[in-house]
Amino acid sequence: MIRLQNIEKVYRTDTIQTLALNSINLEVEKGEFLSIMGPSGCGKSTLLNIIGLLDMPSKGSISIDEQATHKFSDKKLAQFRNKKLGFIFQSYHLINDLQVLDNVELPLLYRDSTAKERKQLATEALEKVGLSNRIKHFPSQLSGGQRQRVAIARAIVGRPEIILADEPTGNLDSAMGNEIMEILLQLNRNEGTTIVMVTHDENMAQKTHRLVRLFDGSQVQ
Amino acid sequence: MLKHLFKMIWNKKKQNSLLIVEILLSFMVIFAVFSFGLNSYSNYAKPMGIDYEHVWAINYNNTLETKNADSLKLFYQGLVRNIKAMPQVLDASITSANIPFSNSHMSTGIKYKGEQISQINNFWVDENYPHTLNLKLLAGRWYNKADHVPGQQIIVINNVLKERLFGNADAIGKIFGNYDDKNKIKIIGVVDNIKFDGDYQAPAKAMYALYDTSAYHWLSKILVKVSPDADAAFESRLYKFMANSLKNSNIEIEHLSNKLTAYNKFTLVPLIILSIVAAFLIINVALGIFGVLWYNINKRRGEIGLRRAVGASGNSVSYQLVNEAMILATLSLIIGSFFAVQFPLLNVFDLPSSVYVIAMLLSIIFIYILVLVCSLYPGKQAAAIYPAVALHEE
Amino acid sequence: MLKNYFKIAIAVLRRRKFFTFISLFGISFTLTLLLVMTAFIDKVINDNYPDKKRDRSLYISKIELRGKESMNASALTYYYINHYIAKMKMPVKVAISSGYGSTNTYVNNRKIVINYKYTNADFWEVLDFDFIEGKPISKQQTDNAERVTVISEDMKKEYFGDDKSSAVGKYIEADNIKYKVCGVVKSLPITSYILYSDIYLPITTSKTKLEADKGYMGNYGAIVLAKNMDDVPKMKKEYADIVAKLPIPGKEWDHVYSHADSYIEGYVRTGSETSSGMVYALTAISLFALFVMLLPTLNLVNVNITRIMERSSEIGVRKAFGASSKTLAYQFIVENLILTFLGGMIGVVLSVVVMYFINDAQFIANLNLSLNFTVLCYAFLTCIFFGLLSGVYPAWRMSKLNIVTALKAQ
User: Fold this and answer.
1) Are residues C186 and C242 in the same domain?
2) Which residues 128-147 on chain A approach chain C with CB closer than 8 angstroms?
3) Would you say the pTM of this structure is higher than 0.80?
4) Element holding C217 (H helix, E strand)
């Protein structure tokens, strides 16, 4: 499903070069739930961004669903992300000016859909995360766990094949974190969604199919 | 500290460049308004040079059939004599159409010491002109009856032209050439400057030539000085007298004071419009600067909190922010002054350099005050940030 | 999609009320200034009272002689109009009038300044003055050089006082001659200087002999009326041919110029053949408009960029979920346009208020500014222009924002 070959990422400033990722080779199967672990600054978020096509590697190639992505134009990339990928962030990144329902509808805005379809799909997604009674709320009126559930609903509303989660439980206490993790596991089990998750939490990582450890930009396991 | 602030501004040059351009443009707008306003004011402060109250201008057109210069002369001199004989008339003078505060201008050029001096207002007058307008003679003499001899090449000039030609030296008796340098003309008198383009325009170079009798068929104005008690009833008598004397002519009597008011509008209306527009632009810019600074402070809460944590007092933080804004203003003003200085250097629009310099200084002060006012409140807000809270948010 | 943009735009506006105030203030005041200016220009050049047949009329008001070192431009002589223009084949009517001159009259020891204008009989047929009382000067009255006059409503009030009785049949004295009033018309503002006057007199009562001056340079102008709009270009051509064949009246000249202009061409003709009045007027107006718009635009750009940076998380999320840079730029421009139109609406209301005050103060007599369809169209166009101008750069900055940094920023 996802194939990374010899990925290298170098950050350059005027004076310093930092090697954030060093010859990463990684393959993720369809339906797999993969977690990435490692200490702060080891490059795990960078790796996730590269998989999510939010960032470009300095070297190496990624193909997703047998498609080489490095030649994609900005527009093609955007479409590709829209159809295939769903994102969950540590700090939720909900749009505070929009109600829950509008937040969830967001990915559907960037593809052909009618308002009615959008509403229906978004409501379904919110039902899956157990928030159908909160659709008219603004993000600021929700707790952290509820916000992250909205973010998950947003990630799954477009039925992506892959979900990329960057420390989805990082800002939550363990009870809420487990709740979120449960939703992700269910998603993986019931819908066969491929999930790549970056985490700090060993317990969470243990619940996934496979664990990849990074240290100083290199894959150690 | 200053170096530290410069560093901060330099590292954020991209965000700051727009603000600098905005302040720069506001400076140019203010500079333009101040230059215009100051110039108008400095002209307004100068004396008018004449008494225009109770001076009327009679417009007529010569409709006499005769082409004979002598009989024209006899007729018009008689006309002026009759006007002067009226009880409320103090003096009267026939002149060319370019009386003070009229839209009519006549200009010519002269040659002096090989130099061509152009755009000199040329007035055709008679011996009664200075007394009618109470125009002061500064040196030499005005024309008298004896000057009405054909071929006399003499002239009276105003003080502006005298200073342009001779500086502080005496002008009486000096000789210059007319526009094609064929005739040599001797200066017999220097008169005070008249602001003939109204209160707000600087007096220009002018010379007053005595017309000869052949001019009567194209002269079209009579200036009449009347006593303060001359009313509409008298004006109507004067009108009837003119209409009866010059049958078939269109007669109109205007008051110089009204003409002045009307003429001043040419300067005042653009100045007022410009000021309104500028005021609105400046309010706009002030709000903008205020908003951006305010926002920047909110965005930099972390930084400010850190500064507080490492020992900066609330005052020094607000000081720093005000100083940053002032440094931005200084950068804009340096660029702005570079442009503004070109105006006096290249002598654009022909205004005196002093006007530009004062306008520039005033604009600089104005911009500093504006930026100071706009940054005070945000600065104060910054001082109120609690380090613990700000750092926690980060 | 648009609905979503609208929602977000309103939400953003409500969140940072101070910034919203700055933006709306800038937009609405700029628009007010531009609208008042547009209304003024529109009134001055598009108000077709009393020349309602403007689209089939041409105005011939100036002639210019040019030599190597000298040039002389002026209105036309009656002789010239009679011999060259009146003999043209295309016009169905030729209105002749003098430039306005002024004179005084004294009523009960009160001085009144009267602007007068001599007109021929066709003048009253080419132009459609609104007669409040009486009727125009007839052909017969003109031919007989009867001392009759059509006066403006303002002049009636000034000369005869506020009394309601009709002025027709009364006498008005101007230039020491008594004229019998035969009609009262609605007054014109002085800005329509081609037709403005306080009293209109038959051309035959002029004090100078009409055909005495056989040169070109005089004090008269003509309006030639074509049968229909299609004939106007032909009429223009006919006059150009006449001018091309004009004998040049002296050795010091080598060219003679005169044009049959449409109203606007004629209005802005500066009297100099070398510099086009149209270009001059347009440059002046656009420079002023640009000057007025530059700073507020810059201000808006500044505020917009600040706002965008504030929304970096939103931008990052949108990009991550499949918005392309173009879509995002488009979204922001639409948002900015919504803001601009909101400001525009306030601007329209403000300009109505300002115009009311200007009209009320009567800065220029009889010049009543109003918002009409044309002015509103200009307002609409200005809004679009303004919105695009101030939105494009921030939108570009926004779309170029790197997703990773945008998401990190919060």
Assistant:
1) yes
2) none
3) no
4) strand C217-218
